[in-house]
Amino acid sequence: MGRKASVRSARNGSSRRENLMPVRPASAVDQAYHAIKTDILNNRLRPGDPVPVEKYVKDLRLSRTPVREATLRLERERLIEIRPRLGTFVSHLDLRNIQDMYGVRRLLEGEAAREAALRAPLDALHALRSELSAFPETGVIDTRGMSETGKRVHQLIVEYCGNDVLRSMILSLQDHFTRFRSLSIQIPEKILSSHHEHLAILDSLAARDPERASALIHEHFDHASQFLLDSLLSGASPARPRVTISF
User: Fold this and answer.
1) Structure pTM?
2) How far is it, in rounded angstroms, from Cα 58 to Cα 122?
3) Are 107 and 183 in a shared domain?
4) Boundaries of domain holding 178
């Protein structure tokens, strides 16, 4: 057997062994981390709410130690605030922080769109546009389906930006934007406006127009930021999640 064949055989054997390795179950800390984080991102635990540590201990059948470690991890991600002698709370929504995050995402994804306009496969762009166009814009509007499909426009841009560092920077903000999106998902006018913007962004990518794609992304995040801030500042209502805003 030649050297190349031997290397291929060794690699294939290694690959087969890796495929046969059992998948490790999630650690106790990971279980608690994902359970609490999911509740925060979906606003089942809302800004300013105390984190019911004992509930997670009981529901997940864990000791207090892994649950506490999970809250420390979430504190580092700025999703939780641990206040000495007071307790553990979901982080407040801070207006300045929201604006800063949207500003950073606007710049990063604008550059990603500029690059994706030169790289994204046309068949993927056309297929996604066709899927988005199928949503009715009058009568009963499927805001959740429209929003979830619209998220894939951003995923496509990130996937085809051609820059791993840029991609990882955008993805590092993802959890916070999931939380923001869950606050605005029930605002139909915002979803419909974003829907039209997503269609225009796809058209610019398919037209191989980097400058227009970047400009449209900038406008999209400017509008999204303003919609969210207006919603938060308009006050609570039965139809909207309760929010606490620190200035």
Assistant:
1) 0.76
2) 50
3) yes
4) 94-246
Q: How far apart are CA 9 and CA 12, in angstroms?
A: 5
Residues near 221 by beta carbon (within 8 Å), at least 6 away in sequence:
102, 105, 106, 109
3-state secondary structure 100-129: HHHHHHHHHHHHHHHHHHHHCCHHHHHHHH
Report yes or no: 191 and 141 within 8 Å, Cβ to Cβ.
yes
Given the structure tokens 């068949």, which residue do they identify?
A: 123
Q: Are residues 70 and 174 in the same domain?
A: no
Give tens-digit pLDDT for 12-31.
554 444 455 455 667 999 99
pLDDT digits (tens, 9 = 90+) for 148-157: 999 999 999 9
| DSSP result, 31-49 | HHHHHHHHHHHTTSS-TTP
Alpha-carbon span 98 to 92, nearest angstrom: 11
Strand bridging mode 245-246 / 93-94: parallel
Same domain, 120 and 191: yes
